[in-house]
Amino acid sequence: MSPAELANLNHESGFNCAQSVLAVFAEDYGMPLKLALKLASPFGGGMRMAATCGALTGALMALGLACGYSEFDEELKDKSDQLTRELLRRWQKEIGPTDCKVILGYDVSDPDQRELATQAGVYDLHCPRCIGKAAEILAQMLAELA
């Protein structure tokens, strides 16, 4: 099963978009699954304020696990920053906007807007694509680095 398929399966199982993406990569890069799911839990729905898409933040967390730094070194910081910008560039090329409310067309932090979004089916329309694309982009980047 591809990373995109795994991430969407996680989402179908009830995890939010950030959890769904991070969970695909966590154990491969040293983070226990339960810890990854807990860490990413506040990031779904654009951090519950329809800000940066949770699928994107989940991918960024996974990128940090795979390629981040834990002791300051200018070269490592620059490499991490470069990879972050590259992930964001690829996201913007594939998806476009980074904010949940722009992607969905609704401010899902507002209960009335969230209900309208549900009625309009925008979660089913946009979220699987964003979750799958975030996992796919990260998997491609990690393969290129290997």
Structural class: mainly alpha
Number of distinct helices? 9
End-to-end C-alpha gap? 20 Å
- The count of DSSP E runs of length 2 or more, i.e. the number of strands, is 0
Report the average pLDDT across residues: 96
Q: How many separate domains make up the residues?
A: 1
Q: What string gives the helices and strands in order?
A: HHHHHHHHH
Helix coverage percent? over 70%
Dominant shape: globular
Major sheet:
none
In percent terms, what proportion of residues is strand?
Answer: under 5%
Radius of gyration, in Å, reads: 15 Å
Sequence stretches where pLDDT stays below 50 over 5 or more residues:
none
Commentary on this structure:
The structure is a single chain. This protein has 146 residues and is mainly alpha-helical. It has one domain. 74% of the residues lie in helices and 0% in strands. It is built from 9 helices and no strands. Helix 1 (3-12) runs antiparallel to helix 9. The longest helix has 24 residues, at 122-145. The protein is globular. The two termini are 20 Å apart.
What distinguishing features does this structure have?
mainly alpha; 9 helices; 146 residues
Indicate the topology.
Layout: H1 3-12, H2 17-25, H3 33-40, H4 44-50, H5 54-67, H6 74-94, H7 100-104, H8 111-120, H9 122-145
In short:
Helices cover 74% and strands 0% of the residues. It contains 9 helices and no strands.
